[in-house]
Amino acid sequence: MLNQIKEKVALVQDELIYQAKLRQHHSHLPVLEKRDRIIAESLQNNGIVITTLEDLGLPSTSEMLNAAHSLLPQMGKHNYPVYAQNPPEIYTVTDLPQFYNWGKEQRLLNILENYIGLPVAYHGVQIRKDFINKSQFSTMLWHRDSEDRRIVKIIIYLNDVEEKEGPFQYVPSSFTSGINFYRLYYQLYEKGIDDETLNKIVSKSAWKSCCGPAGTVIIADTNRLLHHGTVRTSERSTLFFAYTANPPKRAELCTQYWDNTFPRLELSSQNFHLKNQ
Ligand SMILES: [Fe+2]
């Protein structure tokens, strides 16, 4: 009982410190040009923005895309049974400047700092291929990420993604607040939620699928939004960039973008090679 009270007091203190930091940093937030202010405001309002590489117009885009398309032919070359659980192939590419530099474009960091409200920690980049699966498991179950109070993931589709490729799907936050928050909370605490269970709490008609052509960019707060990748009948290739406040609430969950959790890739003069496999 005493420990529970201590935990609650610590949580309240944490929250008060966080709110004070937000207030202190507010006057230091970078000023945004109009097109970027629209993105930051949309993130504030909805927790998500869907745009394209072309519309973002960042100067390092073509270098980043060239690097991605050099790597993709080397990924997902194994045969696998479509009836089994097939986990995605994920590589850390944070060490490759072609990827890392795109994610630290100043315009992007300024938008994210305005949304997060604090100095930003840019954790890194992963390239991944998701395979055909028959049933939901791992990140195909509905979940929230928990690295920080505000977490922004930027997802870039490297191939066209329609329903069959398993788009990123989310539930608008207005459907997961109030009583639904508590109905979902206990199930999320243990594990993710499957479609059938979620449909009983939030009707499928409210779920949003982020389909789009190659070059689609999804900027989403994956803590605020209940989300998942849908079960797919066709493969999907993506890049994931990860950002939180600096420091994040749970720094130990952010190391996967630069430590040895996933194999790395290195660049030779001719091409890219896989290593540490
Ligand atoms: Fe997630």
Textual characterization of the structure:
By secondary structure, this protein is an alpha+beta fold. It has 8 helices and 11 strands. The protein has helices at residues 2-26, 34-46, 53-56, 61-71, 97-103, 106-116, 179-190, 195-201; strands spanning 48-52, 89-92, 120-130, 152-157, 168-171, 208-210, 216-221, 226-229, 236-245, 265-267, 272-274. Strands 1-7-4-9-3-2 form a 6-stranded antiparallel sheet. Strands 6-5-8 form a 3-stranded antiparallel sheet, with no helix packed on it. Helix 2 packs parallel to helix 6 and helix 4 (61-71) crosses helix 5 (97-103). Bound molecules: fe (ii) ion (FE2). Residues 139, 143, 145, 222, 227 line the site of fe (ii) ion.
Indicate the structural class.
alpha+beta
Estimate the global geometry from the Cα principal axes.
Answer: globular
- Main sheet summary: 6 strands, antiparallel
Beta-strand residue percentage:
15-25%
Average pLDDT figure: 92
Strand order of the largest sheet: 1-7-4-9-3-2
CATH architecture of the largest domain: Sandwich
CATH class of the largest domain: Mainly Beta
CATH-level-4 superfamily name of the largest domain: q2cbj1_9rhob like domain
Ligands present:
fe (ii) ion
The total of helices stands at 8
